[in-house]
């Protein structure tokens, strides 16, 4: 739903056109798409072969062709950032089947094979040491035999997904060649924006289980897969939002330690980048020809994603502006990488770079890297004691000499305390200059104050039929502790069917709907926990007042149970106990809809009838929080049993500061195209 402001949309940040998704991730089959600032639906259905990455490649090709047809002398810039290969891992079965049996050796042996190939290809120095598996990670031999088919299929789907994404990237490059533009286009290809993700923990069919701290077992997941979706072949389909086992992530980060969400080790953040510009033409403003000669030798100079913009400025001969429309600009971060293009051994020009994510942090300076692992262990379930007692002032620092130790295999902190102290001061200076402080601010809303994450300031809504695509963060909330009462003034006929209102999608959601005259309310705390209230009899035709009441047992801790009750014209007609509720978010990108369920469906009952538009008339949907619930009180009640007021105040003092929740860190691949 369009409500603005739109200044933070891509078109408000300098792009003349945008096509894609705005959330940290989205379904590849039922994406929540936007064109410029307008929410749109995919051009085809999943059953018709639709896949978002293919669609985005087609859109990029269309833009290139339009440029050639209408403005052939005008340079263009394309920022091509598909959702592949970020979760959820969605790809058609034939792509995953290409990798059957390829990973049967397990993750430790896969890591060994990858390591030897990396050295043979010259991608890593011959002196590199292969770091061992972390003691807290699961070894392949610890996976029971009956569970291995599940773990292997998770990885096969990801591999197929990765190749599929590569293929779409290739389609765009092939179009540049077809149009005769390849030689004169600077291509910056970044494999990803972080290391492989461990958020699948033990391997999952619903990646939001971990985000919402919901327990799961292999047996539970296989029961759902077999009962509802036909078994292992459903992995990669639109029905599940799967994520591989965290130990596969460790194998994919060879030869480094750790995974995504760790800023202390390069397994969390180091990623390959390739630049191509075979033959540039001279063009206006007297810019000189710049050519990147083909060279298979990897560059060893240390650089960061913030160095891409300075590289582009230097490449096209543009001076970074000090003012834009009268507004003074912040200094440009980063160092151009142009100097490395044709000189493999040139002296490095970047002297320092900080890293930080939710308390995990590191700093680079002239070949040295000092770091702190932080309070979170991404590949393990949340440790409440560890999180509650974490104090950044007592963190243990590590130290590595990257000029001799490519994989951070040897921690020199105990041997060189003076160097550690020096690096800590450098981190503090860089963190201060780049507004990183206070340390761990990213944990503030995720762990300590979710009520201060993105949410509507409203406590009451009047909504009407046809209002759709309202962001979950801007809609009525039905998360843990948010007591609510929804009243629907509705006109129904015999055998009324369709969605009255809903939020979320296949990964998790809440939907109130009718089917053949019966009234339903379905609360889905991920695919594993589905609770349905149903009226005992069909509703009589005519004008009816339907009420849906959701009351949580707020003293039960995280994800407390709730009573979900249905009323029609003041009489109770249905009830169900919601045993496990959603703590943070139903879905990463699905929205709130009135009168239909756009995107992936919340309920299995109508999954083949989407958008399952209501066939009656909704005059008014009125939703309000009740029983004293407000966004600033419910979480305090939840955490009271596990944390004292003194501890809470200590955390507030340690983490106080403005912060916008970066709930989903995007792992999609990044490619930029500039025609010069």
TrEMBL record:
Q: Extract the signal peptide range.
A: none
Which superkingdom heads the taxonomic lineage of this protein's source? Eukaryota
Query: Which SUPFAM superfamilies does UniProt cross-reference here?
Result: Alkaline phosphatase-like
- Sulfatase N-terminal domain boundaries: 9-318
Q: Which InterPro entries match?
A: Alkaline_phosphatase_core_sf (IPR017850), Sulfatase (IPR050738), Sulfatase_N (IPR000917)
Record Pfam families = Sulfatase
Q: Which family does it belong to?
A: Belongs to the sulfatase family.
Protein name, per record: Sulfatase N-terminal domain-containing protein
Q: Which organism is it from?
A: Durusdinium trenchii
């Amino acid at each position: 739903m369009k409500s603005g402001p739109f200044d933070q949309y891509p078109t408000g940040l300098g792009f003349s056109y945008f096509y894609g998704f705005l959330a940290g991730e989205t379904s590849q089959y039922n994406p929540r798409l936007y064109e410029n600032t307008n929410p749109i639906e995919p051009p085809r259905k999943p059953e018709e072969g639709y896949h978002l990455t293919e669609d985005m490649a087609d859109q990029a090709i269309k833009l290139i062709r339009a440029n050639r047809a209408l403005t052939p002398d005008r340079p263009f810039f394309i920022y091509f950032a598909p959702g592949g290969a970020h979760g959820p891992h969605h790809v058609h079965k034939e792509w995953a089947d290409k990798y059957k049996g390829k990973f049967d050796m397990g993750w430790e042996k896969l890591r060994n094979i990858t390591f030897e190939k990396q050295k043979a290809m010259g991608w890593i120095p011959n002196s590199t040491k292969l770091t061992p598996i972390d003691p807290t990670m699961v070894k392949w031999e610890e996976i029971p035999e009956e569970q291995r088919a599940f773990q292997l299929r998770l990885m096969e789907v990801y591999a197929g997904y990765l190749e599929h994404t590569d293929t779409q990237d290739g389609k765009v490059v092939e179009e540049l060649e077809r149009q005769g533009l390849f030689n004169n286009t600077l291509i910056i290809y970044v494999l990803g924006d972080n290391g492989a993700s461990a958020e699948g923990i033990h391997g999952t069919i619903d990646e939001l289980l971990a985000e919402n701290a919901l327990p799961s077992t292999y047996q539970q997941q296989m029961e759902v897969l077999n009962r509802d979706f036909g078994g292992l072949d459903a992995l990669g389909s639109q029905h599940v939002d799967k994520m591989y086992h965290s130990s596969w992530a460790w194998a994919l980060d060879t030869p480094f330690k750790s995974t995504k969400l760790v800023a202390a080790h390069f397994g969390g953040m180091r990623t390959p980048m390739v630049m191509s510009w075979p033959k540039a033409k001279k063009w206006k403003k007297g810019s000189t020809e710049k050519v990147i000669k083909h060279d298979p030798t990897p560059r060893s100079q240390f650089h960061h994603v913030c160095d891409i913009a300075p590289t582009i400025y230097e490449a096209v001969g543009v001076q970074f502006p000090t003012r834009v429309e009268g507004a003074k600009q912040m200094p440009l971060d980063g160092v151009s990488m142009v100097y490395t293009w044709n000189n493999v051994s040139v002296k490095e020009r970047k002297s320092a770079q900080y890293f930080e994510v939710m308390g995990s942090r590191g700093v680079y300076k002239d070949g040295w890297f000092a770091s702190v692992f932080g309070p979170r262990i991404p590949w393990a379930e949340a440790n409440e004691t560890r999180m509650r007692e974490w104090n950044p002032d007592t963190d243990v620092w590590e130290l590595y000499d990257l000029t001799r130790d490519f994989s951070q295999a040897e921690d020199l902190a105990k041997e060189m305390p003076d160097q550690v102290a020096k690096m800590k001061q450098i981190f503090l200076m860089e963190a201060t200059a780049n507004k990183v402080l206070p340390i761990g601010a990213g944990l503030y809303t995720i762990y300590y104050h979710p009520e201060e994450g993105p949410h509507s300031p409203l406590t009451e809504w009047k909504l009407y039929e046809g209002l759709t695509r309202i962001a979950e963060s801007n809609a009525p909330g039905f998360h843990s502790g948010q007591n609510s009462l929804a009243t629907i003034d509705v006109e129904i006929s015999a055998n009324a069917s369709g969605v009255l209102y809903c939020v979320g999608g296949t990964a998790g959601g809440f939907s109130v709907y009718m089917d053949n005259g019966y009234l339903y309310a379905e609360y889905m705390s991920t695919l594993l926990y589905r609770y349905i209230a149903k009226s005992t009899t069909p509703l009589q035709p005519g004008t009816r007042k339907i009420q849906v009441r959701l009351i949580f047992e707020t003293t039960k801790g995280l994800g407390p149970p709730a009573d979900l009750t249905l009323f029609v014209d003041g009489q109770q007609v249905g009830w169900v106990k919601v045993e496990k509720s959603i703590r943070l978010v139903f879905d990463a990108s699905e929205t709130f809809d009135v009168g239909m369920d756009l995107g992936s469906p919340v309920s299995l009952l109508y999954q083949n009838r989407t958008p399952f538009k209501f066939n009656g008339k909704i005059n008014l949907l009125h939703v309000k929080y009740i029983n004293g619930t407000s966004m600033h009180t419910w979480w305090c009640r939840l955490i009271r049993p596990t944390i004292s007021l003194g501890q809470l105040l200590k955390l507030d003092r340690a983490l106080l500061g403005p912060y916008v929740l970066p709930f989903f860190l995007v792992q999609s691949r990044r490619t930029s195209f500039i025609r010069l």
